[in-house]
Amino acid sequence: MFQAASASSRKPTAREAAEECVVQIAGKGIGAPAFALVHANSALPLQDIGRILRAHWPGARLHAATSCLGGMTDSGGATSDSLSLAILAINDATGEYGVAAGDFHGGARATGYRLARQALENAGRAGEIPAVVLVCATPGDEEDFLAGVQEVVGSGAPIIGGSAADNDITGSWRILLDEGSSGSGAIVSTLFPSVAVTAAFQSGYAPTEQRGVVTRAAGRRVFEIDHKPAANQYERWTEGAVRRPVEGAANILMASALAPLGRAAGLLGDMPLYSLSHPETICADGSITLFTHIAEGDELVLMKATAATLVSRASGVVRSARRIGDLHLEDVSAMIMYYCGGCMLQVSDRLDEIRGSLMAELPRVPFVVGFTFGEQGSLSPGPVRHGNLMISAIVFGS
To answer: CA-CA distances (angstroms) from residue 382 to 116, 126, 323, 343, 360?
Structure first.
């Protein structure tokens, strides 16, 4: 029988927060989960949280990483002035769950390949296609990491995830290892639950008429759009809301959060779907850095959103996931969501509204939301993509 329960804590220490979550989950009928998804505020030592949870749940597979300001559940969550730990625990006697985590040894692609194989072996399902694959990497090489994971699981399984995050973009994000934690690594979980699973991956942004082709780029830095300095083009597209500095570089993460750059990534009927890239800095040399790789020849489109659309989109993605899997409300037993940390910071004063909308969409269903610095999923049938300012939902049947 598949059971799920959520827990959250704002206690000031890792021990207190983890212990409170264990008590909450036990009180909901799960004393020894098979699998637990853990989102922790980066100010809490992740390795201490892992050590305490493993002491209580020695048989549990833990998929744990830091999240911007923590996480959110149906019972509570993150605020800007408190620490937060959020957990979704699953007990599933006839399901199999495998987790593997490690540092980026030998490159991100090789790490993705290695961890995906290990996760399948840990689930006792080597060579099989999981119902869903959960991934989390520290920011920087998500595209190569995902390519390695997909080499193992192919295109038959949805790959859904969110990059590890911290509270202030200082690089203090962590993922949990078997021993300790890592600031440069990844975690892969292969899930074979005893219930149906369905997922959706979307953005809450609409395209504008402003667009151009990348004519010079390297990795995550764009130098030219339509043979003109990218910084000048972006400044013009945003009507001066973001300006090219006279010297050095300026962090524009907050200023660009409602005006990211999109790339067409498929169709829903005849409607184009976009994968988003969040501009990070705008530089005096005319370049822009982003949180995704960009290639020469890519067409970039200026995207727009409002706080209202970011708030309403969360429940809409859940609704899409249910429809994709043809799941009625009474059939849903749990939900996992990855919600971009950059979007969350734009609407941090409306998190209770978002939580309320999710609870209205999924009455009495336990869920956990992580606030990530990069999101992974498939916008349409095809390869998994790494994007920014995106939202994904994974819905479990019953």
So the answer is: 19, 23, 19, 26, 31
In the three-class reduction of DSSP (H, G, I as helix; E, B as strand; rest coil), residue 299 is classed as strand
Query: In the chain, which residues have pLDDT < 50?
Result: none
Residue 35 CA to residue 18 CA, distance in Å, equals 15
Q: What is the DSSP string of 93-119?
A: TT-EEEEEEEE-TT-HHHHHHHHHHHH
Strands 175-176 and 185-192: unpaired
Q: Any idea what the Cα angle at residue 82 is, between residues 161 and 29, rounded to 5°?
A: 60
Instruction: Name the one residue in this structure whose structure tokens are 């909308």.
Output: 357
For the question of whether the overall pTM of this predicted structure is more than 0.70, the answer is yes
pLDDT at site 147: 95
Sign of CA dihedral 305, 224, 236, 212: negative
What pLDDT, in 10s, does the model give residues 269-325?
677 788 999 999 999 999 999 999 999 999 999 999 999 999 999 999 999 999 988
Q: Are 301 and 344 in contact (CB under 8 A)?
A: no
Q: What pLDDT does 80 receive?
A: 55
> What Cα–Cα distance (Å) separates residue 210 from each residue in 40, 293, 333?
38, 20, 42
Task: Tell me which residue of 63, 112, 23 sits closest to 386, measured CA to CA.
Answer: 112
Asked if 133 contacts 98 with a C-beta cutoff of 8 angstroms, the reply is no
* pLDDT value of residue 268: 64
